[in-house]
Amino acid sequence: MGWDANVWEDPMEFRPERFLENGDGDQEVVFDLKGIKEIKMMPFGAGRRACPAITIALLHQEYFVANLVRDFAWTAENGGDIDLSEKQDFTMVMKNPLRVHVSPRTR
Ligand code: HEM
């Protein structure tokens, strides 16, 4: 699925910006990351040959995020308060996706 040109435009090209929102400031999400409308990506596969290490891989990702929180200072992009408004999606999500400024913590 990840390499299928019927699913992805130029599937073999490394283009992380395909996952970004529109650059024009509105919050329209170009890529349906949560698979609400369709599923285009299954990072760990599915079924009998799905990744048997999904649990350890997700645990490592939590560890990775925890390290980012520990080592960097996170502030709202515009310096103001963080808008914690929610909206119901497949799960409860932030109404306005979080955009932050990240800088190394001084210890
Ligand atoms: C973020 C990390 C990882 C991702 C995204 C990932 C993803 C995948 C995917 C897509 C498959 C193929 C599933 C399919 O054919 O349907 C796979 C298979 C597999 N993965 Fe992972 N994996 C990750 C980490 C790991 C780790 C850490 C290990 C080992 C410690 C591991 C061991 C395996 C093994 C042994 C298979 C083959 C399973 C089989 O063919 O029966 N993976 N993984």
TrEMBL record:
UniProt-annotated location(s): Membrane
Cofactor names: heme
Superkingdom, taxonomy of origin: Eukaryota
Record has Disulfide bond as a keyword: no
Membrane topology per record: Single-pass membrane protein
Keywords, ordered alphabetically: Heme, Iron, Membrane, Metal-binding, Monooxygenase, Oxidoreductase, Transmembrane, Transmembrane helix
Similarity comment text for this entry: Belongs to the cytochrome P450 family.
PANTHER family according to UniProt: FLAVONOID 3'-MONOOXYGENASE-RELATED, P450, PUTATIVE-RELATED
Protein name: Cytochrome P450
Organism in which the protein naturally occurs: Salix suchowensis
